[in-house]
């Protein structure tokens, strides 16, 4: 695709060559593998690591640029300043990288207010980053921050994940598809998709209240619908696409006390409404409940 082509051609990264650390692209391929689990393990399709089939057609140098952009994209989600700095290092055109950036093969992190440094290679504190080895520095830094620095914490999670979800079928999915199944979809959704998935109780004599409810839901902004999902289910994300999901809602008419706010039971995906006298009253009471409630939820 055009997007994939731009990733591999936008920036001319220098070729990795042997340097003071004693590693090169040919001698130490594990340095450049975009691993998403310790010891080279990945979640999802192992043949392309969940990438587009175009990845296998790229030259080794283009694959390296693809990997760098892919990993920098991950880092930018939680350390945007670091990602920008590493990109600036790679894009720097002059030969005075060592004098301009003043970097060595070390990474640093904040441990309860104290800055701690770790070597990225043996004797890394004495190996300057230069124009010739900056790609290796960036890849080692990315490898450290995405994998090595969290290996101790990730390993129990990985064992638990494979214990619950492991199997041959797992290899059929890309990482993004597994994320979608686990976290659900963060995209906006059409309330009409939920109507056939919703059980209604007690509205035999008050169908107009139920109609108002669906109208109010459709008129909400996407951010408000996220609050609604969080209020009723404990999560502001839908499991996959609403129309094909296993999400089941239950809307119950609680009684005639229209002065009370809606009530939710997140364990059962249940919303309780009262016999409100108008659509505006229902909207006001529901909006107040969504914005002022505080209780159980999934982050």
3D structure, described in words:
By secondary structure, the chain is α/β, with parallel strands linked by helices. Helices cover 39% and strands 10% of the residues. A four-stranded mixed sheet has the order 3-4-6-5, with helices on one face. The protein has a two-stranded antiparallel sheet with strand order 1-2.
What spatial order of strands do you see in the largest sheet? 3-4-6-5
User: Could you describe the largest sheet, including whether it forms a barrel?
Assistant: 4 strands, mixed
What is the ordering of alpha helices and beta strands?
Answer: HHHHEEHHHEHHEEEH
Query: Number of DSSP strands?
Result: 6
- The average pLDDT value, as a whole number, equals 78
Shape: elongated
Unreliable runs: 1-48
Helix content: 25-40%
Q: Cα distance, first to last residue?
A: 34 Å
Which descriptors apply to this entry?
299 residues, alpha/beta, four-stranded mixed beta sheet, two-stranded antiparallel ribbon, 10 helices, 39% helix, elongated
């Amino acid at each position: 695709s055009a997007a994939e082509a731009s990733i591999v051609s936008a920036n001319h990264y220098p070729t990795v060559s042997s340097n003071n650390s004693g590693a090169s692209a040919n001698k130490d391929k594990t340095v450049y593998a975009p691993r998403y689990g310790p010891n080279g393990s990945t979640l999802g399709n192992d043949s392309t690591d969940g990438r587009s089939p175009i990845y296998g057609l790229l030259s080794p140098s283009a694959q390296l640029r693809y990997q760098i952009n892919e990993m920098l994209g991950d880092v930018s989600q939680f350390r945007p300043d670091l990602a920008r700095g590493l990109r600036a290092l790679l894009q720097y055109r002059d030969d005075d990288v060592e004098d301009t950036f003043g970097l060595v093969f070390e990474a640093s992190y904040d441990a309860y207010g104290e800055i701690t440094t770790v070597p990225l290679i043996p004797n890394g504190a004495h190996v300057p980053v230069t124009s010739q080895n900056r790609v290796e520095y960036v890849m080692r830094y990315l490898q450290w921050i995405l994998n090595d620095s969290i290996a101790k914490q990730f390993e129990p999670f990985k064992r638990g994940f494979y214990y619950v979800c492991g199997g041959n079928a797992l290899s059929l999915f890309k990482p993004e598809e597994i994320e979608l199944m686990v976290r659900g979809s963060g995209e906006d959704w059409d309330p009409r998709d939920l109507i056939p998935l919703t059980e209604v109780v007690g509205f035999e004599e008050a169908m107009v209240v139920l109609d108002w409810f669906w109208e109010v839901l459709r008129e909400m902004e996407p951010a408000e619908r996220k609050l609604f999902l969080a209020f009723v289910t404990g999560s502001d994300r839908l499991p996959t696409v609403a129309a094909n999901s296993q999400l089941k809602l239950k809307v119950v008419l609680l009684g005639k006390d229209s002065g009370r706010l809606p009530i939710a039971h997140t364990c059962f995906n249940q919303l309780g409404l009262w016999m409100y006298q108008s659509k505006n009253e229902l909207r006001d009471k529901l909006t107040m409940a969504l914005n002022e409630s505080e209780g159980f939820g999934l982050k």
